[in-house]
Amino acid sequence: MPAVDLKAHFTAAARLFRVPTDPDLTRAQFDAFSKQIPLLYFILITNTIAVAYTYVPLAPAALSMIVPAVLTAVTGLRTVWWLRQRHVVRSDADILRNLRLTNWIAAPIAAGFTAWSFALYPYGDPFAKSQVAFYMAVTVIGCIFCLMHLRSAALIVTLVVNVPYVLFYFVVTGEPTLKAMAINNLLVSGAMVTVLFIYYRDFADLVSNRKSLLMQQAATQALSDENFRLANLDSLTELPNRRRFFAELSSAFNDAERRHVRVAVGIIDLDGFKPINDNYGHSVGDRVLIEAGRRVREVCEGFGPQRVEFARLGGDEFGLVVCGDPEDVDLMRLGERIGERVKLPYQLDTAHTGLSCSIGFALYPDSATTSEALYECADYSLYHAKRHLRGRTVIFSSELEAEIRSRGVIENLLRTSDFGAEMELVFQPIVDAMSEHTAGFETLARWHNPRLGWVSPADFIPAAERIGLIRPLTQVLLARALATAKTWPDHIRLSFNLSAHDVCAAEGILPLISIIEKSGLPPHRIDFEITETAVTFDFVRAQQSIATLKAMGCGISLDDFGTGYSSLSHVHRLPLDKLKIDRSFVADINENPVSHKIIKSLTGLCDDMEIACVVEGVETRAQLDTLRRLGCDFIQGYYFAKPMPAAAIEDYLAKERERLDHGAAKVVA
Questions:
Q1: Which element (helix H / strand E) includes 346?
Q2: In the chain, where does the domain assigned CATH 3.20.20.450 lie?
Q3: Angle at 661 between CA 655 and CA 663, to 5 degrees
Q4: How far is C-alpha 446 from the chain's CA centre?
Q5: How does pLDDT run across 571-583, given as a tens digit for each residue?
Q6: Which residues of 232-334 form beta strands (DSSP E)?
């Protein structure tokens, strides 16, 4: 056992005199060492010249001139070599080899200077002898300092110089003063070695920690890049998605505006896609979308001299941004090529089918002066093509601009509408994913106009925002929704959507607060849903409004997450309680691995932020089971119920209790 211990101690001691093999540590040593080693040789050379100068009249020329000249030349060459290393890029193997060479050179160089010093000693008078002793003591201390980053070399120099120094001056000379210097040098060197060990340990730890930090940063950056890629990628076609499209549009528009050149927006809609979906199923429809996207992308990539950005906007709709100062003729040529490729037959197992596509273009600066208006013009061009020139390409014109004005009918009717009489509310359940108990209802508005009949919220909500009626409309609907919610059981929450104009208005949300207080419904039973677009509309003011509602006790949900333009930095800066994942990610969650990854990533984000995750658009049991496994908290969709009038809620809750009680009884049985 003692032999084993002795061998272990010997191995540990030998390791102190070896250069480490960790590439990160040796590279850090080499970088630091290359800056300090010239200083070491400068100290050595200047001190050597000083001693040699003193002994020129006292010692033979071989000792006072030739030997120090050789030693100085050797160290001078090494100084020049190390100075050049600051500008040389070396591999890990080269660095290790050079550090080991330095380790080996340290002993003979230290021995050479030590032997020269001892050889000079007999020729000097007491002052000269003291200078030699002082030279050796001071120089070795300076060398230890400069060699701190290469512990093995520092220890070698310390032993090679100090052991003979102490023995010679303490034992051989017999001079009391030199004995005192030898003891002092021994103590100082011991202290220096202690400092050396502490410094080297801390240096190695710093390198290790830096390596760990860089690895963590790399992993974080990789995760961030992957999340960014997934957030900007359409899960089905692997094309850029709607978010990426609008980012490209904004960038291209700003560039065109700055350079005073043209830029165009195009929207493509597949004609005849719905029958394929209905007749062959969604899986076949998905394959058609993938193939159509591939064909259009190939046309865009081969179209010149203009650069064309291509993305899937959703459903069977795709978007184009055409840069490079295009003319009308360029857009028509691009539309024709896309139409020709899309029309080619699609093989669907044993059947073949064909599609066509309608395309709407709008050109800056002819059609609009903002990117948003340009997109709306392209959208209306597509609308016109679908209605009148199906399968063709339409470029926005003055005639179409006149048609747009006719959309003012809805706006005019909204201005004269009696919101209290014409607006109706329906409510869709928000269900706890695990227990399947209804946790709340989302309020949805419907407009029945005497002249137009039922008008979709997709039409009248944007119109109300455009003409400045959204805030009074919100106030009327909120008061009615709160009155309805007051009749519900205490554990049922009300979820209500707010527009960007509601949370970003100059006068704030004081009217909404007044309505809440007058309703008598506890604020903690109210969730306000705010879209990503509303948040980015005026983030500072939206943040203030949200904080005020939160301080009242209301919950805050970020709606349609993944379809707007907010960044994760915005999300982290808001006091959110829930994050609602858009239905577009749910439809193919069990068929498309990318959709699965996106929702998994978003549920992980919610878990990290300690907020609830609500998923919209759940229509099947299979989707529900998958979302449960991914950790989603709440579910909303047709699987549980469609939006219902207030009068139907009591009956719905009663049937839910019966269903859950029956299920519990079966479990007990």
A1: strand 346-348
A2: 428-668
A3: 105
A4: 39
A5: 777 888 998 888 8
A6: 263-271, 307-314, 317-323
Which tokens belong to 395?
């470029």
Distance CA 183, CA 189 (A): 10
Contact 343, 390 (CB under 8 A): no
- Peptide bond before 305: cis, by omega within 30 degrees of 0? yes
For 242-406, CATH number out of 1.10.10.10, 3.20.20.80, 3.30.70.270, 1.10.540.10 equals 3.30.70.270
Q: Which helix H or strand E contains 417, and what residues bound it? A: none
How far is the CA of 149 from the CAs of 25, 146, 625, in angstroms?
10, 8, 59
Contact call for residues 104 and 150 (beta carbons, < 8 A): no
In CATH terms, 428-668 corresponds, of 3.40.50.2000, 2.40.340.10, 3.20.20.450, 1.10.10.60, to: 3.20.20.450
Give phi and psi for 431, each to the nearest 5.
-110, 140
Which residues neighbour 143 within 8 Å (Cβ) at sequence distance 6 or greater?
A: 40, 43, 44, 110, 154, 157, 161
What 3-state DSSP class applies to 487?
coil
DSSP assignment, residue 121? G
Domain with CATH 3.30.70.270 in the chain: 242-406
Residue 50 half-sphere exposure toward CB, CA atoms < 13 A: 14
DSSP 561-610: ETSS---HHHHHTS--SEEEEPGGGTTTTTT-HHHHHHHHHHHHHHHHHT
pLDDT in tens, 542-558: 888 888 999 999 999 98
Give the chain's count of helices (H) and strands (E): 26, 17
Q: What whole-number distance in Å separates Cα of residue 215 and Cα of residue 111? A: 43
Q: Would the pLDDT of 644 be above 80?
A: yes
Burial of 629 per CB tally in 10 Å (0-12, 13-18, 19+): exposed
Specify whether the backbone of 354 is left (phi greater than 0), alpha (psi in -120 to 50) or beta.
beta
Instruction: Identify the DSSP state of 65.
Output: I
Residues 6+ apart with CB under 8 A from 164: 114, 118
Q: What phi and psi values does residue 179 have, to the nearest 5 degrees?
A: -60, -45
Give long-range contacts, CB 8 A cutoff, 24+ apart: 435-439.
Answer: 435/660, 436/640, 436/656, 436/660, 437/656, 437/660, 438/492, 438/640, 438/652, 438/653, 438/656, 439/491, 439/492, 439/493, 439/634
What single-letter DSSP state applies at residue 236?
A: T
Task: Tell me if 587 sits within 8 A of 617, measured CB to CB.
Answer: yes
From the number of C-beta atoms within 10 Å of its C-beta (0-12, 13-18, 19+), residue 154 rates as buried
Half-sphere exposure in the Cβ direction for 70 (13 Å, CA): 10
pLDDT exceeds 90 at position 442 = yes
For the record, the structure tokens of 359 come out as 């395309």
pLDDT, tens only, 21-56 = 677 777 776 777 677 777 777 877 888 888 888 888
Question: How far is the C-alpha of 69 from the C-alpha of 362, rounded, in Å?
Answer: 83
Which DSSP letter does residue 512 get?
A: H
- Cα–Cα distance measured from residue 401 to residue 397, given in angstroms and rounded to the nearest whole number: 6
What pTM was estimated for this model as a whole?
Answer: 0.47
Burial annotation 535-569 (CB, 10 A radius, 16+ → b, else e): bbbbbebbbebbebbbeeebbbbbbbbbbbbbeee
382 φ, ψ (degrees, to nearest 5)? -65, -45
Rounded CA-CA distance 145/138 in Å is 11
CB 580 within 8 A of CB 602: no
Give the residue from 388, 403, 405 showing the smallest Cα distance to 466.
405
